[in-house]
Amino acid sequence: MRRLIFFLVTMVFCICSYGQTEWELKRVDDGIMAFTRKREGIKFNEYKVEMMLNATLSQVLAIFKDFEVYTDLFPGTEQVKVLHNEPAHHITYIKFNIPFPARDRDAVFDNHLSYNDDTKELKVDVQCLNDEFETNPKLIQIKFCDGEWIFRDLEDGRLRVMHSLIVDPAGKAPAWIVNSKTIDDPIKTLKSLRVMITDSKYQGHSFSLLGN
């Protein structure tokens, strides 16, 4: 029986790991570590960025629920519309300003939030929706993205922040150009988060999701 269980666990691990390479460290920038890896069948790199942050989970969640600052938090974001907003689930429409000669893009992001009290982790699962909401026909719609945010409370006044995402920008976007800049914007996002978190307006919040 033990051998059978070991075999099944091994098979599940192999299936989940199939089709993607190991993370490769690409840059260390002001305490932020940036990685990329390949996924089978997708020509664009997946990225992962990590850092330590002096903050609480409530502060982070307050920022993520403050949709008006997304244009400052996420580089290239020009317009944000909140299509659905619940404590553990929000959907946003975002228009991106892409440098010329490329065309601007938009996407609908589906965000599911969860909190694990055992591991002290706040997680945000992110995917792109295709047909449920109307987008701008004059723009190129991003139809595929898959990623997550994980904030782990180390219970010493710090959080371990990890964010990963893979996106197919659609249209005629050369993979070699996109891949060469994959980690630039995520690094900027973490730097912006580190500055924003010090704002007093994100202190003193309580959220039922976090049990406070």
In short:
This protein is an alpha+beta fold.
Q: What would CATH call the homologous superfamily?
A: START domain
Structural class: alpha+beta
Q: Count every helix, treating DSSP H or I runs of 4 or more residues as helices.
A: 5
Give the name of the CATH architecture. 2-Layer Sandwich
The major beta sheet can be summarized as:
10 strands, mixed
Mean pLDDT: 91
Total number of distinct structural domains: 1
**What percent of residues adopt helix (DSSP H or I)?**
10-25%
Count of strand segments: 10
Report the CATH C-level class.
Alpha Beta
Amino-to-carboxy terminus distance? 43 Å
Instruction: Give the low-pLDDT segments.
Output: 1-18
Radius of gyration: 18 Å
Provide the succession of SSEs. Answer: HEEEHHEEEEEEEHH
The geometry reads as globular
What CATH calls the topology is Alpha-D-Glucose-1,6-Bisphosphate, Chain A, domain 4
Strand content: 35-45%
List the main descriptive attributes of the protein structure presented here.
10 strands, 10-stranded mixed beta sheet, 22% helix, 5 helices, Alpha-D-Glucose-1,6-Bisphosphate, Chain A, domain 4, alpha+beta, 212 residues
Written overview of the protein:
The chain is of the alpha+beta class and 212 residues long. The protein has one domain (30-210): Alpha-D-Glucose-1,6-Bisphosphate, Chain A, domain 4, CATH 3.30.530.20. The chain is built from 5 helices and 10 strands; from the N terminus they run αβββααβββββββαα. Strands 1, 2, 3, 4, 5, 6, 7, 8, 9 and 10 form a 10-stranded mixed β-sheet that branches. The radius of gyration is 18 Å and the shape is globular.
